[in-house]
Amino acid sequence: MALIVQKYGGSSVADAKRIRNVARRVAKAKDEGNQVVVVVSAMGDTTDNLIKLAYQVNEQPGDRELDVILSTGEIVSSTLLALALESLGCKAVSLTGAQAGIQTDSSYSRARILRVDTKRVVSELEKGNIVIVAGFQGVTQEMDITTLGRGGSDTTAVALAASLSAEICQIYTDVEGVYTADPHLIPGARKLKEIGYEEMLELASYGARVMHNRAVELGELYNVPILVASSFSDSPGTIICKEASMEVKNKARGIVYDTNVSKVTVVGVPDHPGIAAAIFEPLARANISVDTIVQNASINNITDLTFTVARNDLIKAMSIVEPVVKSVGGKQCVTDSTLAKVSIVGTGMQNTPGYAARMFRVLYEQGINIQLITTSEIRITCIISEDRVKNAVQALHQAFELEKET
Ligand code: ADP
Ligand code: ASP
Ligand code: MG
User: Fold this and answer.
1) Which domains does the chain have, with CATH numbers?
2) What is the mean pLDDT of residues 2-19?
3) Which of 61, 92, 170, 401 would give a disulfide with 54, using CB separation of 3.0 to 4.6 Å?
4) The 254-270 sheet, strands edge to edge
5) For all residues of the chain together, what is the average pLDDT?
6) What is the mean pLDDT of residues 48-67?
7) Nearest bound ligand to CA 157?
């Protein structure tokens, strides 16, 4: 008997009718002889609405309370799915993240899973239950509720699949798999039959919302095969696995974009050892991820330093950086939140010259100015004006001929 983990996203459980649809799909997987663990997201826009509500009563809601209120969204959908399964005559039990043994650190709103204690889930499976787990949440050692970051239910699912040694983790969503670009933006985007963890991690980290990046990271670490497919059809979907060797001829595999970016420029700091450490160490301690970092050539031992952070981290980042800049005799900090990242990703690009130059030419031909450039071995990212980013994705998708089967 195989053990499988299925995850259904917010749009798949957006209303009662869709929850009944999910219940039928889960019941079918159980009838086929599997042990089934299901992870659910909150219904539709519930998480956004809960955040709005919290801000209506407090302009600066504390992280701890915010995590508690956000966790309720997934609890509602998990209980509704258990009830829908019962009405189909299936034995099912819903569990919160804490009950399912998802133990995290205490970084509210971006907690990381430390371990999964599978005792309760295993005992419910042994009783013949379908186990429905509320996604996106965990609990600290002190029994405080945490959440894993937006889109984090994917990570709950893969963490459970890894801990239970499940045969597969199936991520069901509102598109039929992973595409060469967001299919809602690029109608000609092509569905990939399979993709390696490494490429998927870059796509997820640079804007392909379809998978939470930490879920991909865990999948790779524990070698969990992940299927991304639609909850509304039986189309075969995309497999994320170790070796995706079939489709490497076209070396760029995907184009992604991300508008959650703010640029900070620290102007006029002295160019001597220790300045970068003085600025970036406290940011790291505050758990703020810094992405692109560029330091200009210095003139008369004075230099400028530019870096990017997520928009929702900007206020916190500035409150940390401004006093440091003052204390080292820097002139000022300038910010810009009208930017976006556009990236091309593909393992075949490493050791193949010319991809970056081609990308820059395409953007130039569209009259798009590149503000910053960052690369990994398998990714090239340009930071451009937010209002041109969709145009950039379209032009790059066409120029790299990603709609063509390879
Ligand atoms: P869920 O609620 O099921 O977790 P999400 O909204 O988080 O779903 O992710 C699915 C969405 O990801 C799709 O509706 C699609 O618009 C977007 N997306 C962005 N890039 C891609 C891509 N490369 N392939 C597939 N979907 C993508
Ligand atoms: N409900 C959470 C969110 O909207 C988590 C998730 O959907 O995965 O981000
Ligand atoms: Mg998601």
Assistant:
1) 3-174 (3.40.1160.10), 255-399 (3.30.2130.10)
2) 98
3) 61
4) 293-295, 302-309, 254-270, 332-345, 379-385, 372-376
5) 94
6) 96
7) 2
